[in-house]
Specification:
The chain has a 4-stranded mixed beta sheet with strand order 1-3-2-4, with helices on one face. By secondary structure, it is of the alpha+beta class.
Length: 120
């Protein structure tokens, strides 16, 4: 994931896909669990995969950020937090999150998306 920008750029070049026609769905530690935020462009907020995408592609791709925060305990290493097993409560949220992300992607594909924040 941390080097995903290289792969995305190769796919964009091969299929002649612009950054504006690229959507990225990723986890966002700075958003509370199950909060979804969409938009175009922006910063990486420390997310190494997004840093790579921004470095290797135009930074104009559509983003769907899925909240996974807050990190508890705060002292926990971020990599350990992100890679740990989901709690039962978090697992129960997954079908609703999947449904909302699918809806957002369908709106984006239909050309009717706009920046949005949702709580699942």
């Amino acid at each position: 994931m941390n080097l995903s920008g290289e792969a995305v750029r190769l796919v964009q070049n091969f299929y002649k896909i612009s950054a504006n026609d690229t959507a990225v769905v990723y986890d966002e530690l700075d958003l509370d669990i199950s909060t979804l935020r969409t938009g175009e462009g922006g910063t990486s907020a420390g997310h190494n995969g997004i840093k790579s995408l921004a470095r290797h592609t135009e930074n104009a791709f559509w983003r769907i950020r899925i909240g996974i925060g807050p990190k508890e305990p705060k002292e926990m290493d971020t990599a350990d937090f992100v890679l740990q097993k989901l709690s039962k409560t978090q697992q129960e949220l997954l079908p609703s999150i999947k449904k909302e992300v699918t809806s957002l992607l369908n709106d984006w594909l239909a050309g009717s998306s706009k920046p949005d924040t949702r709580k699942v």
